[in-house]
Amino acid sequence: MDPARDFVKSVKRLVIKVGTAVVTRTDGRLALGRLGNLCEQIKELNSSGFEVIMVTSGAVGVGRQRLRYRKLVNSSFADLQKPQVELDGKACASVGQSGLMALYDALFSQLDVTSSQLLVTDSDFKDPDFRMQLSQTVNTLLALRVIPVFNENDAISTRKAPYEDSFGIFWDNDSLAALLALELKADLLVLLSDVEGLYSGPPGEPHSKLIHTYVKERHQSEITFGDKSRVGRGGMTAKVKAAVYAAYAGIPVVITRIWCRGVQWMKAWVSIASVACLDISMVLKGETVGTLFHQDASKWMLHGEDGAHDMAVSARECSRRLQTVSSEARKKILLDIADALEANEELIRTENEADVVAAQQAGYEKSLISRLTLKPGKISSLANSIRVLADMEDPIYRVLKRTELAEGIILEKTSCPLGVLLIVFESRPDALVQIASLAVRSGNGLLLKGGKEAMRSNAILHKVITGALPDFIGQKLIGLVTSRDEISDLLKLDDVIDLVIPRGSNKLVTQIKESTKIPVLGHADGICHVYVDKSADMEMAKHIVLDAKIDYPAACNAMETLLIHKDLLKTEGLNDLIVELKSEGVALFGGPRASLEFDIPEAPLFHHEYNSMACTVEVVDDIHAAIDHIHRHGSGHTDCIVAKDLEAADIFLRQVDSAAVFYNASTRFCDGARFGLGAEVGISTSRIHARGPVGVEGLLTTRWGSVHPPESSSVANGYIQP
């Protein structure tokens, strides 16, 4: 829920105004699908205990269609050759009102809901007795669960031109809805339109942005209105005036559009396909849809709650200042951050423990709690990793390639910051530290959204890190997004944000890719394999497999599947490995062959990420079968081979299509923080490939390689020991 919309929890009575553009299609005919969908939503609200009052437009449009048809039927060919006179609006209203209400009555009757018609004129509201009787009538109808449907009686209205006065007399149905919301003491007014809400300019223009919370002091002079409604009288200008009038009188207002749900609206007498995805119930759940008008909106802005766009722009401006300073200056900032983390370790641990306790009480899975927990020594480890990162070669403004195009003309390819990054991650508060330090070193602005389960941990880490940033750079270099609803706003800012990196489940990555035009660097599931070749040193294999599984089972690069060459069956080394896994508490599940060989339960499927002390075991015929298995059931994250046979290792390294492919090293090797490298060695994307054995000095290039220990090295716990 958007914190600014927390008031919806107490909403009981609401007024819903339906604009002409909602009621009719672009050709002027009734939009039966939208109306049917709307009536279903109102029925659900009515059944849920909400008191719903409707204000509808569209009578003039409906009547105009009918009268044009009637005029055509009654006209001779000669009549049709004459100039056509525009139909009288009041006559159209008279004919259309009965037809529109007949349709509402039919739709609601199909849903077992009773509706009532109330026609009013502006002059009616001059009479205090009328106002009192109106309130009594509506209260009686609502008590009986009847839906009052209001409309201005245009057929007999004496109004000639738009006007306003101190009595709140209305000019159109938008202002009528605002007036009724006040008269009938509604808790919320919803103005439905054919656009998503109020934009900073005409919605069709590329730089127009949706305004989620209207602040009169800020937006009144900034907004450029487009053309009036294509069918109604007022358009967005009238809606904003009505919304401001009601909001500043104490009635919150939301301007939004009604989209269909993508389901079929079917009844005995009609079948209509509806396409879209917004319910009015989303407004009542406090989700960030449409534009909110509230009398306290200016106070929220004064309290410093930046919108998504402001946060992104601030990060960009700060990053540009960061890019102007020297490498030594950025190094100094990182060292200050490391010192600040260690100085505040006790406070960070306290906030993290509160998150862990809350997660346990909420019944979260052990794997998530494991990722959430900052274990003893973790803060010191993170601080040391930041210091190592600070001492590394400056990643920006390095000449990567120089080409002489002609005599005296040289083209240089230089590394540079990306700009502003939006990174969404789940559960792991230590990821915030890693990401922030990398952003500072590389001169990038940063927007971070962590999991809600780590809210307190992320908040204190963000406060400590930004507090260490110098004033000439600005603390807004790193923004912390606290509301999930803000993500949808940020994903629309393709003119400010340069790259989105989601770190989390495959579902999260997919949702983000489908919701933005900004480039997304995302990974799939972390279904990582260790293949033990027939040539493997089994003592080495045992160390590597145990490290890959039990060092951090919840990590995305923990081993999830152990593949074993068939020639190793019945050998003492393999038996020791299986026994060791079980003794460490690892639950084993087998493929069709392994489940029979080791008498373990059969895994329901190979493509499964446990994120816990469990893994799948399967037997393969040879290295080619292992590679085929990885390609069929893996996720292109991290895979490794344990072998003495260099030819087999080379085949594995060349043919496995994964982000990180290792030789005689644990899948956990790409967690660079374990080795003082400051961050993950293997970026979680299936678009960066490993090729061939390289030494440790090659791990920080743009192509991540495997670890090939020389003769004088030994492998312990899955990584090189000199």
UniProtKB/TrEMBL annotation:
GO terms for cellular component: cytoplasm. It catalyses: L-glutamate + ATP = L-glutamyl 5-phosphate + ADP; L-glutamate 5-semialdehyde + phosphate + NADP(+) = L-glutamyl 5-phosphate + NADPH + H(+). Pathway: Amino-acid biosynthesis; L-proline biosynthesis; L-glutamate 5-semialdehyde from L-glutamate: step 1/2; Amino-acid biosynthesis; L-proline biosynthesis; L-glutamate 5-semialdehyde from L-glutamate: step 2/2. GO terms for biological process: amino acid biosynthetic process. GO terms for molecular function: ATP binding; glutamate 5-kinase activity; glutamate-5-semialdehyde dehydrogenase activity. SUPFAM superfamilies: ALDH-like, Carbamate kinase-like. It comes from the Eukaryota. Keywords: Amino-acid biosynthesis, ATP-binding, Kinase, Multifunctional enzyme, NADP, Nucleotide-binding, Oxidoreductase, Proline biosynthesis, Transferase. Residues 12-256 form the Aspartate/glutamate/uridylate kinase domain. Its EC number is 2.7.2.11, 1.2.1.41. In the C-terminal section; belongs to the gamma-glutamyl phosphate reductase family. P5CS plays a key role in proline biosynthesis, leading to osmoregulation in plants. Involved in abiotic stress tolerance. PANTHER family: DELTA-1-PYRROLINE-5-CARBOXYLATE SYNTHASE, GLUTAMATE SEMIALDEHYDE DEHYDROGENASE. HAMAP family: ProA (MF_00412), ProB (MF_00456). This is Delta-1-pyrroline-5-carboxylate synthase. It comes from Ensete ventricosum (Abyssinian banana).
